[in-house]
Structure to design on (200 residues):
């Protein structure tokens, strides 16, 4: 299958108890411009017999998720980074209670999340939609970077990175996926797996 696009980056807060994993307070990060997943595996653990490799074992050891949404809103930043928010109050003698600031400080508790997104594929001329859910990740605070505007606009989007982990279910899942014939079906699958009941 040839990849031709990516869309719908969803998140939801992760929790686990007694081997049962649940999600809550989910939403969409924005519109996806790029998503990348790099997986790390353990070194080969080979069993040699009759002067050759008879068995080998290689297991998931972690990974890194990269998401580049078109924008990173304050609401999404609060949710995925565990930030607090407060009203700014008076600035230069003017009170504007609509202005709020995000606080990066000792009280920040970055949550575990489940994350899902859709990869658009083409298979023998037919479009397919591959829905992927990473069951447990934790995002890092993104870097701030910008380039000045020149004669033409150079589009710049935020880059989010997260560590991919096994969840705390009985089988310790780290990824789930299914392929569909429509994007709506793939989106419904992700929202179901992340217990998201509201629209984007």
């Amino acid at each position: 299958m040839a990849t031709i696009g990516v869309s719908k980056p969803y998140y939801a807060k992760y929790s686990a108890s007694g081997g049962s994993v649940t999600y809550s307070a989910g939403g969409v990060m924005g519109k996806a411009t790029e998503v990348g997943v790099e997986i790390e595996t353990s070194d080969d653990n080979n069993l040699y017999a009759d002067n050759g490799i008879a068995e080998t074992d290689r297991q998931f050891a972690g990974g890194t998720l990269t998401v580049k949404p078109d924008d990173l809103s304050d609401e999404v930043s609060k949710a995925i980074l565990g930030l607090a928010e407060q009203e700014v109050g008076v600035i230069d003698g003017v009170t504007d209670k609509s202005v709020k600031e995000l606080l990066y400080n000792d009280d920040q508790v970055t949550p575990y999340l489940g994350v899902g997104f859709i990869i658009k594929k083409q298979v023998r001329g037919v479009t397919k939609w591959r829905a992927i859910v990473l069951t447990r990740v934790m995002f890092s605070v993104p870097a701030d970077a910008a380039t000045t505007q020149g004669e033409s606009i150079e589009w710049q989007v935020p880059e989010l990175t997260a560590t991919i982990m096994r969840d705390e279910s009985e089988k310790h899942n780290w990824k789930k996926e299914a392929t569909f014939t429509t994007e709506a079906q793939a989106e419904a699958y992700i929202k179901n797996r992340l217990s998201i009941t509201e629209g984007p």
User: Anything to note?
Assistant: Residues 74 and 81 are 10 Å apart (CA to CA). The longest strand covers residues 2-17. The first helix runs from residue 74 to 81. The two ends are 28 Å apart (CA to CA).
